[in-house]
Write a structure and sequence with these properties.
Elements: H1 3-8, E1 16-19, E2 29-37, E3 44-49, E4 54-57, E5 63-66
Length: 73
C-alpha cells in the first residue's frame, strides 16, 4: 500500500485535499474536505476549493491528504 492510499483511507472532514501539479505551468489545487461519501474503494469527497466553489472529488491519483486541525487536540 502506498503512502497516499494509507492516508486517504482515513481522510475525514476538516482535512485538506491537495492536488499535485501535473506540469511546469500547473500550480495544483487545494481544498477543504467537507464530507466523505461512500465506503471502501468507493469513497469520494465533497470539497470546498480555494477558488471558493464546491464539487465532488473522486480519487484516482496525483493527490495527497493533509490533516486538518482536530478540535480535540
Amino acid at each position: 500500500m502506498s503512502t497516499t492510499e494509507a492516508v486517504t483511507a482515513h481522510a475525514r472532514p476538516g482535512d485538506w485535499l491537495v492536488i499535485l501539479p501535473r506540469g511546469l505551468t500547473d500550480r495544483g489545487r487545494r481544498g477543504l474536505i467537507l464530507e466523505v461519501i461512500g465506503r471502501g474503494e468507493h469513497k469520494h469527497y465533497r470539497v470546498r476549493w480555494d477558488e471558493e466553489h464546491e464539487s465532488l472529488f473522486y480519487p484516482s491519483g496525483g493527490y495527497r491528504i493533509e490533516r486538518g486541525h482536530d478540535p480535540g487536540e
